[in-house]
Amino acid sequence: MKQVLRHHLQQHKFFAIKTTHGTPDPKLAKATDQISLLDVYLVVEKNKPLFQIDYKTNPDCIVGGNIQETLKEYYNQAEVAAKAKLNSIKLSDVIDTILVKQKEKEAFKRQTEQ
């Protein structure tokens, strides 16, 4: 996952990566508390919508003939809410959560080994 994210981030100027020739330790040019999950999502997924509407339905069917327009508005509302949430979560939050979860796993493992 780290390599995939690094690959995507390197392709986009928003996430300029600082590297030092001869060292395998690239660094983000922006602080992790300045990068939101929405930023990452937009870089990785570009303009791909969160939800896809199936347009291959039977227009003569009551559901198939009306489902696209019905879902379009609900999907739009859900996408706006999801993107707002992603924008409020910073990469530093994700890193901190990963570190806490790892410490918890290690503590649990030590307790079970005793």
UniProtKB/TrEMBL annotation:
Q: Which InterPro entries match?
A: Tscrpt_reg_Rrf2 (IPR000944), WH-like_DNA-bd_sf (IPR036388), WH_DNA-bd_sf (IPR036390)
Record-given protein name = Transcriptional regulator
Q: Which residues form a coiled coil?
A: none
Pfam families for this protein: Rrf2
The species this protein was found in: Lactobacillus intestinalis DSM 6629
